[in-house]
Design a protein that fits this description.
about 325 residues, alpha/beta, two-stranded antiparallel sheet, binds coproporphyrinogen III
Length: about 325
């Protein structure tokens, strides 16, 4: 069993720097692209044998130190009774968004049987892989943003307006989603996920005051509820420089950051937690010497063999060349 990823999450010393890539099990992979010709993203995720194949592809092709469950953050709202379409090249679309406080009651309570397919995928992965399987969920803010906007947004205007106009409805929405997230991650851990990551991809659009008032208590409750499972908990977001002190002040083992902050600053600000990140995904497309110079600089800023996991600062771009990514994994492993 290769457990360097789990050791790094727990802040222990490792012989080799662990690597995985957010969104590694997706659009940049040949096997995934072939499967997508005959299956939608959701039907792939709901067919355990195929989902497991997609999760394993980067482990075999890139030699990464962890596999991520092949799923999507929108599978939880689907399991809570919301109709969601995933449109290729666009993202999640909801024809009837939850854009009023009354709409919040459309969310049904989560039940583990509604994601039996994910548990089965994790069991297959546990049996076949010698690296840990990472489970994940969207965080309440990021999920709420899709539910309220009905489509991907770059301004989150409707989301923030709902939050400011209807604080009680917002609290109800965040509480219902947080209950669902706790059940959803607990289900993945019960099936064999060895670590869980909460993706709060879009929360960096909030001011520190808003984050503290409208989001932080819910995220704290999620992490605290999962403590008893004993598995490492990772908290990831982008554009979090302005909220990092609060963002990192939850009961978890690892903070994931993007490239807009230097790792030395992150290290100084988050205290004893482990760090994951933070290569700009675009660097995968840069000349090799630029890429390795950037990676070397990252390693100068942290102790890369203690409490550190190499990753991108956000998802793998579909344009990434797998031979370059594999060479990068070798480079990191050689350090
Ligand atoms: O490699 C992996 O990480 C596999 C599993 C995974 C998917 N989505 C599959 C997927 C994970 C971890 C996610 C997380 C996810 N989904 C996030 C959080 C991480 C992030 O990138 O910020 C978010 C915000 C979503 C919502 C979502 N799903 C968007 C915005 C999109 C469209 C844009 C895109 O990336 O293509 C999706 C679709 C999606 N989810 C695809 C995959 C492989 C592409 C579907 C296709 O083939 O067209």
């Amino acid at each position: 069993m290769n457990d360097t990823f789990l050791k790094a999450c727990r802040g222990e010393k490792v012989e080799r720097i662990p690597v995985w890539f957010m969104r590694q099990a997706g659009r940049s992979l040949p096997g995934y692209r072939t499967l997508r010709k005959t299956h939608s993203l959701i039907s792939l995720a709901q067919t355990p044998e195929l989902a497991a194949k997609v999760s394993m592809e980067p482990v075999e092709l890139l030699n990464v130190d962890a596999a991520i469950l092949f799923a999507d953050i929108m599978l939880l709202p689907i399991a809570m009774g919301i109709e969601v379409k995933i449109v290729a090249g666009v993202g999640p679309i909801i024809d009837t968004p939850i854009d009023t406080p009354e709409g919040v009651s459309r969310l049904e309570p989560f039940a583990a049987q509604r994601v039996d397919y994910l548990s089965e995928t994790i069991r297959i992965l546990r049996a076949k892989l010698s690296v840990p399987v990472i489970g994940f969920s969207g965080a309440p803010f990021t999920l709420a943003s899709y539910l309220i906007e009905g489509a991907p947004s770059r301004t989150w205007l409707k989301t923030k307006r709902f939050m400011l106009e209807h604080p009680a409805g917002w609290k109800k929405l965040m509480s219902a989603l947080s209950d669902g997230i706790i059940g959803y991650l607990q289900t993945q851990i019960n099936a064999g996920a060895r670590a869980v990551q909460l993706f709060d991809s879009w929360v960096g659009c909030l001011s520190p005051e808003e984050y503290r008032a409208y989001v932080l208590p819910h995220v704290q409750r999620i992490f605290t509820a999962l403590k008893k499972t004993g598995v490492p908990r990772l908290h990831f977001g982008t554009h979090t420089a302005g909220i990092l002190d609060d963002f990192a002040n939850v009961d978890c083992e690892v903070i994931g950051v993007d490239w807009r902050m230097s790792l030395s600053e992150v290290k100084r600000r988050i205290g004893r937690k482990s760090i994951q990140g933070n290569l700009d995904p675009v660097m995968l497309l840069a000349p090799w010497h630029t890429l390795t110079r950037t990676v070397d600089r990252m390693f100068d800023e942290v102790d890369p063999k203690k409490g550190y996991i190499f990753n991108l600062g956000h998802g793998m771009p579909p344009e990434a060349d797998n031979s370059v990514v594999r060479k990068l994994v070798e480079y990191v492993h050689s350090k």
